[in-house]
Amino acid sequence: MITEFQKKVYDFVKTIPKGKTATYKEVAIAIGRPKAYRAVGNALNKNPFAPIVPCHRVIRTNGDIGGFALGHLKKVKLLRGELQSLTSRGR
């Protein structure tokens, strides 16, 4: 069972396009809870809908990768793979 807060987070994160990122703070602002960026991270850590909800596209405000349930290196690999996929298609 997911909370209403988690649902809002997951619904927004699903709108982040492939090859793009958003920050935890941007997600918090987008769902109307601008100070809840840590709670956004916690919700994404419990994401039961991956890869439909692409939580790997959410990063820290300072540009650092941030956490990922499958590990930091897996998050980097997923992001790089998306960028390479878009680049190879000429986008």
Textual characterization of the structure:
This protein has 91 residues and is mostly helical. The protein has a single domain (4-88), classed as Winged helix-like DNA-binding domain superfamily/Winged helix DNA-binding domain (Arc Repressor Mutant, subunit A, Orthogonal Bundle), CATH 1.10.10. Helix content is 47%, strand content 4%. It has helices at residues 4-13, 24-30, 37-45, 72-88, and strands at residues 22-23, 58-59. A two-stranded parallel ribbon has the order 1-2. The radius of gyration is 13 Å and the shape is globular. The termini are far apart.
Percentage of β-strand residues: under 5%
Q: State the secondary-structure class.
A: mainly alpha
Would you report the number of β strands?
Answer: 2
In angstroms, what is the radius of gyration? 13 Å
For the record, give the distance between the C-alpha atoms at the N and C termini, rounded to a whole number: 38 Å
The SSE string, one letter per element, is HEHHEH
Tell me the overall shape. globular
The CATH architecture term is Orthogonal Bundle
CATH class equals Mainly Alpha
